[in-house]
Amino acid sequence: MDKYNFKVVAELRSDLTENQRLEVSSKIGELQRRLKIVNIDNETYCKAPPIKDYDDFGAVTFFFSALKDLKEYFKRLEYYDLWEGDKRIEV
Amino acid sequence: MRSDQVRETDPWARGVVLSFDFVTKDLKDYYSKNSPQGAYEVLKRFLLKNGFEHLRDSDYKNKFMDKVDTVDLLYSFSRDHKWFPHCINKVNISPNITALDISNDIKALGDEAELTHTFFYFANCVIFKWIIRFFILFSSFFFS
Asked: Does A57 contact B at CB distance below 8 Å?
């Protein structure tokens, strides 16, 4: 795994219905496919390798922006800039 | 403040400069066949409404927004303007660094008197070259 500079931590709420869980998972999957984002553990998302010269910024930041539209489904939605030490907590 | 102290370490502290460029053919396909360049005006209006300042061509500056907020803004624009992601050739977000305008200082260095002196200096050089040439020509004629 290449060293990533940006990551999103997104954890779904545990009280979602099966339908809601399926719907939001499908939207997240579609965003992952478009932006080439991989899920490296249960909650952490970063850009798929190769990562070169901080080129993971756009994909991960757009991913975070898009997930903010679904924020009612998350119990945790956070953005980390490991390059410059920034952190955004949406939920 | 001592001169060896670093005043500002965050390159993004003064905001961002956003530059973009569209593919004209894609604008014709996805935005407008007859007036594709109108897309620049649509995005310009949006950016000005959101606190950006037009610099030149497709360069815009926002002193208060950071790179993440800029992406957020572009995401909201692309959500409302479906043609936008299809027509982009290049989008760059860079730190808004301070430009030090030294044009007047350079102009102040210009000295008319020195300029005249320089002119005569070069003119003299040309004359000196001709004198040497005549001397060589004359001496070769004299000694032949």
From this structure: yes
